[in-house]
Amino acid sequence: MTLTDRTLQTTADLNGLCFDDKGLIPVVTQDASDHQVLMVAWANKESLGLTLETGFMHYWSRSRNSLWKKGETSGNTQRVQSLHADCDADTILARVEMKGPACHTGERTCFGEDSGPISVHAGSEAAASHGPQEILSILWKTLEARQRDRPEGSYTTRLLSDENLRLKKLGEELVEVVTAITRGHDSVPDEAADLVYHLMVALLSSGHSWADVEERLRDRMG
Question: Looking at the domain covering 1-109, what would its CATH class be?
Answer without folding.
Answer: alpha beta
